[in-house]
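Lecture notes, unit on protein representations.

Consider one protein chain, 316 amino acids long.
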Amino acid sequence: MADVSTLQELFGVDADMPVPMLEDDSDLIPRIDENYRFDPEVTRAILAGFSHGSRVLVQGLHGTGKSTHIEQIAARLNWPLMRVNLDGQISRSDLVGKDQVVIEDGQPRTAFEEGVIPYALTRPMALVFDEYDAGRPEVMFIIQRLLERDGLFTLTEQNRVIRPHPHFRLFATANTVGLGNVNGLYHGVNRLNQAQLDRWNIIASLDYLDPAEELLVVSGQVPEAATKLGEETVATMIDVAQLTRSGFAAGDVSALMSPRTVISWAENSVIFGDVELAFRFSFLNRCDSTEHPLVAEYYQRCFGGELDLDHAATAS
């Protein structure tokens, strides 16, 4: 059991709650990323999920590290974790299970093969639904059963009721808060049933890292960037990213640079030995051509040099 001092040591937060640490050697336990930086408020929300069994939904823009945040807490608690991406191909049978024809004693017979939910529900495991706001309606109503207070799950295919394991935990991540694709950034997401959204005990919001923290992450993920390009250059890349995020929030640009994009930019800068070329490959070429001058202004304000837009215009 992790106490206050252990949680402070592992996550850097003061959380006065007993959090179980499992003794498990499952292959489903995530690997620890020593370079990961924890957001204190979101960490406390996720720890409450592991401690009290609260259903926790983490919302935030792409690249903020929502799923990874849950994974890295699970890794340090030695807790098996399974992630399910609710893309358009996930069906009811994937989650619940289905009858399959199997060969037994040389004879074919029908056997029920359990899906993700019955498998996870009966084990000490954290189940994470990624892209929660992209789930199909028939899938979302199945998940709604798990959000009831007792968490019992009726498996109609076998006429039985599954009681959750004492250490089963449920999390989800989403880019929106159930409002759908209001800004045009996340095509394919849906408006969520507000009655279902109300069943989540905790909804946490994860924002991008502080620039100093993001510098540590990028330098940790791409150590060659700090040595070959210099730490100051990497910090300037993050400054450009901050301007795109501010521009997006103000409605000036339709795309932004996530920490994942900055990491790609740093990697490409090392590969090509050219920060400007890597910027075009990593971000500029996916921006609308009408926004190129403004993005070039962001680049010029941080690096002090003009960005060659002729190559980007030719690519567009």
